[in-house]
Amino acid sequence: MSRAIRRHWWITLFLGLGFLAPAAGAESVSWEDVSYAEADISMELEQAAEDVYYVIGRNGVPDADNQGFMSNAGFVVTEQGVVVYDALGTPSLGWKLLEKIRGVTKKPVTHVVIGHYHADHIYGLQAFQDHTDATILAHETAERYVSGPGAEARLKQRREALFPWVDEDTRIVGPDETFGDRKVLDMGDKRVELVHVGPAHAPDDTLMIVHGPNVVFSGDILFDGRIPFVGDNVDSENWLAGVERVAELEPEPRMIIPGHGPADKDAAAAVEFMRGYISKLRERMGEAVENLVPFEEAYAETDWSEYEGLPAFDATHRRNAYNVYLEMQDQMGGGF
Ligand SMILES: [Zn+2]
Ligand SMILES: [Zn+2]
User: Fold this and answer.
1) Residue 17 Cα, ligand 2 centroid: separation in angstroms?
2) For labeling, which of 70, 106, 138, 290 is most exposed (least CB within 10 Å)?
3) How does pLDDT run across 168-192, given as a tens digit for each residue?
4) Which InterPro entries match (predicted)?
């Protein structure tokens, strides 16, 4: 090979790599910097508005296929730093999200807001605690989750379901600071407002409103395109109220990013779906409790066909109905 040809070859290789680098870089995450197991599941960063980004998790229960990536999260870049909403379901996913943020801006992450303490939204906090100076913010009732017995039991279950992404080194990271009904982060060019709407899906449900770009992160107050998870500490009446608060936001948000499911520009559809689903559970289970109809019978007699084809129906719907049945029983002073 002559020197000229060799040089030409090098230039071609150089240009070729240069051309490829941005595309490869967009997906590249440096796992050698951390002890978390590599999560090779693809995570597409989407843009809701200028400076506002989000990622959408998969449907389903936590398993090796989704690697625990079942919930949504996002962030807003402001003059004074980056505010993140939710941290995803494993330290590996938290790290992956942090690397995505670093791909967009060199500004530091100043805050991580947790929309509610449930395992699928918080295990990624470990990466933010280990690798940023961000303040972790949550509603004051989040402390109950952190110090309660359920959190450890859930972690144990996830160490099995999501190994190696959740392992012996995975820990529950509590908030650094808590707030009451409302908190405003004045971030220079943008105002970020946190509004507590729980207890609903969880005691600490919090919306994050990004004023200016006018984007709302609703957390698990809204699920879109799948059956929601209704836990055993649900307040379904207040959940409906929370859905209405989202519906009545003024000005109407440019985009609402739900806790699960795609971010639909037509947020009205997600609101309508949640309203319908929670109302139906409350009506049917309420009637049954009032008439002393056992759960099994009430469940079997109800026509659920409008929800049957949706993701997560088999995994969650029956338990959802049961949890609302128990809730109604409690409220009506039943249970004997
Ligand atoms: Zn949840
Ligand atoms: Zn969730």
Assistant:
1) 40
2) 106
3) 999 999 999 999 999 999 999 999 9
4) Metallo-B-lactamas, NDM-1-like, RibonucZ/Hydroxyglut_hydro
> At 281, is the secondary structure helix, strand, or coil?
helix
pLDDT digit string (tens) for 205-225? Answer: 999 999 999 999 999 999 988
Average pLDDT over residues 149-157: 95
* DSSP E strand stretches across 144-270: 177-179, 182-186, 191-196, 206-211, 215-223, 255-260
The total of other beta-carbon atoms located within 10 Å of residue 249's CB is 16
Q: Which residues surround ligand 2, an ion (CB under 5 A)?
A: 71, 120, 220, 259
Q: Ligand 2 center to residue 219 CA distance, Å? A: 7
* Domains recognised in the chain with CATH numbers: 26-274 (3.60.15.10)
* 10: helix, strand or coil: helix
User: Identity (one letter) of the amino acid at 5?
Assistant: I
Ligand 2 centroid distance, CA of 4 (Å): 60
For residue 116, the CA-to-ligand 1 centroid distance in Å is 7
Q: How far apart are CA 166 and CA 143, in angstroms?
A: 22
Cα of 312 vs centre of ligand 1, distance in Å, is 14
| Phi and psi angles of residue 183, each rounded to the nearest 5 degrees, phi first | -150, 140
Residue 3 CA to ligand 2 centre (angstroms): 60
